Amino acid sequence: MTIAASHDHARLEPGTLRHFDHLGQSVIESLFCRPPEPIDRSSWPAQRLAIGLGATLYVPATRPDLAGVIRRRRSEGVVSMVIDLEDAVADHEEADAIGHAVSALQEISDHPGDPVLLFVRPRSVDRIPSIVEALRDRANGAPSALTGFVIPKFGSANAGAAIDAVRQASSALGQHLWLMPVLESASVVHRETRDEELATIAAHLAAFRSNVLAVRIGATDICGYFGIRRDRDLTIYDVRVAADVIAGIVNHLGRSDESGFIVTGPVWEYFADHERLFQPLLRHTPFRESDAVYFRQQLVSRDMDGLLREITLDRANGLHGKTVIHPAHVAAVHALSAVTHEEYHDALDILAADSGGVRASSYRNKMNELKPHRNWALRVMDRAAAFGVTRQGVTFVDLLTALARQGAVSR
């Protein structure tokens, strides 16, 4: 299936936040049997909102035209962004970067434009009060564009201070702010301390559940403890020590009961081509069927096949969404987040009965076990709300090629 390009505006009310809203309405209608719903920050439960983050783009706060960068990325389909004051900022640049972050948030508050979920990642918890105070000084009583804080190296040692700081920031700004902890400290990574540390973190987050949006994983720091930097031919799941940490985090914090949280996928670090050691990971057939063979070659030349593979493995391991550091990666995450027609109808079948049992899929290619698959089906419905349900026969290739026509994949 080949999608014709369109530049129609999606017919949305001003101030509406929705995935794929940068595509034309006719393209959305041709791709989706159930289009993505507007993201409702006030009524969506945290689990659905966390899944709706999709690809969360990190933007260094050192960019002088930070507000302009944020608006430009939003126009390209980015829904959630983190203004980074930590790893992306040199020590001597931190003060200027904080000033840029505050100015950008204030400019966006004064001139909202298209809405976006904006978070700040401070270097440490003790920077939060000064950031909030600077926002208050400039706010003139208007609500801030800030959605919440991403806390690096979150653990038992700083959990209490981080929670208190975000709670006090919410009170000072008069709005609900979300906390997203990043798990990447040595006590989480090292096997002898991991379970106790994660159990303590889980207890802290459970006590503050109403303000915890999602748990993020700092894969780069995790690998750094072992002197490892994964090659672009490999996914994070090929690095066994990192995969073990991810499994532990999901086991403690990603459970599908009332104790769990949404855990997001780790960053994919690469975006340039190189001499390859292994065969590409993308099959030819889906691209031939969509008349997109050359597009496949473009993806492979930019190492996007590895990213697509890792996104698929993220979901297989219980993760949703992904941290991204390059805007070209956003489309891949979102294209693979959309619910397929088959997934959606399997989920509907599973949720239609509470009595259990086994039932053949309406696609006649699998068996749906109604009780064991129920939590999976509920997650599918959250994804369907955030990213829509594709029409029968529409594949991720169709979504990616439609997004590429907007310049959001191959850049």
From TrEMBL:
InterPro entries according to UniProt: C-C_Bond_Lyase-like, Pyrv/PenolPyrv_kinase-like_dom, Pyrv_kinase-like_dom_sf
Cross-referenced Pfam families: C-C_Bond_Lyase
Signal sequence, start to end: none
Record keywords, A-Z: Magnesium, Metal-binding
Domain of life, per lineage: Bacteria
Taxonomic source organism: Gordonia paraffinivorans NBRC 108238
PANTHER family: CITRATE LYASE SUBUNIT BETA (PTHR32308:SF10), LYASE BETA SUBUNIT, PUTATIVE (AFU_ORTHOLOGUE AFUA_4G13030)-RELATED (PTHR32308)
Keyword Ribonucleoprotein: no
Keyword Repressor appears in the UniProt entry: no
Record-given protein name: ATP/GTP-binding protein
Cofactor: Mg(2+)
